[in-house]
Amino acid sequence: ETVELVNADEQLNKLLGRIGESWLRVSGKRFRRNEVLPLSWTGDYIHRDYASAGRLVSKFAGPIFNLIEELSGERVSRVDQTISAMLLPPDLVAKLTVSEGSPALVVRRTYLTASDRCLQIVVNYHPAERFQHAMSMSSISAA
What we know:
Blueprint: E1 2-7, H1 10-16, E2 22-30, E3 40-47, H2 64-72, E4 78-87, H3 90-93, E5 103-112, E6 118-127
Antiparallel strand pairs: 1-2, 2-3, 3-6, 4-5, 5-6
């Protein structure tokens, strides 16, 4: 819904865990196929060094980090993820069609190169009733 260059203020520094940097923010709703209610509100923060990706985001079918890799020649070697619970921020209540004070899960991913250079940070706000995390684990025999 929006593509804009933002300078990290105190609130954005806290959200991203990065101090005093500029980011290209690409934000909007995400939907599941054939669903009416949005799955989440997503903020993709592209480091200013890779902001040229912003002009191609709407035409690129795939994860934004893949676009950044294609344009820069750098590769993501690690993704750090945190999931936390909170009340949905008031500015997202109407956008996500939920009641004020609704619980949400926030999924934050930081995309890093082998030299720990940050290419992108993605923050997803999921209304609690629309979030599910599924994982399979298998044992490895010590043979």
